[in-house]
Amino acid sequence: MGRFKKDSKGGTPKISTASLPDIIFMLLFFFMVTTTLRETQLFVRTQLPMATEVQTLERKSLVSNIYIGPPFQTRVFGTEPRIQLQDQFATVDDIAAFISAEREARAEAERPLMTTSLKVDRETTMGIVTDVKQELRQVNALRINYSTARGERPGSGRR
Amino acid sequence: MARSRPELNAGSMADIAFLLLIFFLVTTTMDVDVGITRMLPPPIDPNAPEPPPVRERNVFVVLVDRHDRLMVEGQITSVDRLKEQTKNFLLNPTNDPTMPEKRIQEIPHLGEMEVSRGVISLQNDRNTSYEMYIAVQNELAAAINEIRDDVSKEHFGIEFSELRDQELIDAVRTAVPMAISEAEPKDIGGR
Q: Of A71, A79, B9, B46, whose CB has the highest number of CB atoms within 10 Å?
C-alpha cells in the first residue's frame, strides 16, 4: 500500500517563476503591436480639440504631419503659435518644400492618397491655420485631416 | 537512466523582458490618428472662367466671428442648434421656396433620389479660435452624417458607417453630398 509521503522539510514550497518571462514577453509584444514609435520631438504644444464625427487615418505611412501651437519654451520662443515641420520650427513659406520632399519620399502610385494631418492646438487662432491651408492649396496637397481627439466637446450645451 | 540535467535559472529572464517592456512603453505612443478629413478646393486658375453663381436659396451661410460667435443665415445662433438647422436646410422637408432646390437623380442601388442642391458656406475670421472652428465643422459633419444614416437605414437597413460595400457607400455619398465650401479667407470686422 502506498502511503502519502509527508513533506519532511517545513516552509513554503518554491513557486516556479519560469513562466514569468513568457507573461512579460506577451505584454511586450502586445505593446509593440498596438503602439507606434514616436518619430518627432515636439516643440509646440498641440492639445487637440474634441470632435465626435471623426475618421481614422488608415495608412500612417501616407500621412505628413504639420504641428501648430504655442512653443513649450515660452521664454525662448514666445507665446505666439508657431509651425513645426518634422524636427524644427518653420514658417508658412517652408511648407511647399516640405510637401514636395514628402512627395518624393513616397512611391508614385501612392502620392494621390497622401494626407496632410494638421495637429493644431485648440487655443490657436484660425489666421495661421488659414495661411497653412492656402499654402497647401497652392502645392496641391488637398487632402487634409484636422486632427482631433475623439469625444464630446467639453461644455457643449453651455452656450 | 538519463542523468538529470541542471536546471537553467530563468529568474533573470523576467527582468530582461521587463526592461524591454518599459523601453517600448516609453518610446511609443498609443493614440491612433483620428480627425475630420476634408478636401481643400484646388488652387484658383486665374484664366478659368467665373463659375456660375450659386443661387442664393441654395447657400447656407455659416459665419464665425472673431469672438467665436456663430451666425447662421444672418441670425445669431449657438453651436448646439447648428446641427438641427443644417439638417433642416439640407432636407427642406416643406419644400420652402427660400430653401434649397432638389434635383431628381438616378443613383445606382438607390433608384431615383431627390438630391439637395444646398451648399454650406463656412466663413471664419482670422481670430476665430481653432476649437470653435472644429466644433462648427463637427456639427456640420454630424448633420450630413445623420442624413446619410437615415438614407442608408431606409434603403439598406444599416447605418452609413456600417456599410462595407464601396458601391453602396458611393451611392449614399452621391445622394447626400458633403457640400461644405470654405470661403476665400478674408477679415470679418477687422483685426
A: A71
